[in-house]
Target: Methylcobalamin:coenzyme M methyltransferase, methylamine-specific
Amino acid sequence: MPAVCFTQTATIEQMEACGAFWPEAHADATKMATLAEAGHTVIGFEAVRVPFDITAEAELFGCGIKAGDLKQQPSVIKPVVKNLEDLEKLRDYKLNEGRISQVLEAVKILSEKYGKELPVIGSMIGPFSLAQHLNGDAWFGNLFTGEEVVPALLDFCSDFNIAYAKAMAENGMDTLAIIDPTASYELIGGEFYEKYALPYQKKIVDAMKELDIATVLHICGNTTKGLSIMEKTGVEGISVDQKVDIATAKGNVENALIIGNLDPVAVLWNGTPEDVAAASKKVLDAGVGLLAPGCGIVSMTPTACLQKMVECAKNHKY
Model:
């Protein structure tokens, strides 16, 4: 089994080992690539992945961002879209500006170094969650009342996602991780997912299929009941939260690979390598397609625990 991670990979111990630290590595392509590389050279992941957060997209469009630090990722604190008029002001964006440009350059650096031997994973926030970042606290209320800004914003976000993903592909990305946390079945249920998330995620996946780019979708929370709908996006892999039972998840999909789902806090961060081995065995015995964290790796996670997860994956016999 390949040892990979489709969610956030960086840790403080990796930063210390390679000399590239947050928050600088969020905004500098060379440092970003160096820290992403540490996931391979220090931990043993058989892929390299950027970036480490899901706020660069919102920042590009002018959202207020709370800067991260050595331990914490940046977060969105101020939306920019209240209505259709606000949305129109965002359409003249440029991918060669801001942190987005640095992510693209980091993809290129990693592809030039590792593209022939390792998958280069590009990650981005999904259209539903990006729309929520742009619209802020009003987003879910607007969904329930059917405001006209909702479909317009989702169309805009998914079109942006496609343009961004194509730019990543041009720079050497061969696998796309779509991280869409607020599209969780636990938050919006199946009916709203089918209406407001599925069509827009599928647009991205369809565009990537034309470029022969593999896609993985990660959504937080207990998505068990929504997996069959998520599979309709056409993704090759679905990354599931630690709340999901792997055996049940496998029974809820036909073709998608189920990826996960070690608890990133209780097991990987606060556990021991022995705890990781026991949890890995349980997930592997349940038939997971790829062993991985159930969400982004906590920056304080010990290297030894991540290395044990890698060891368990590599030693697994199907």
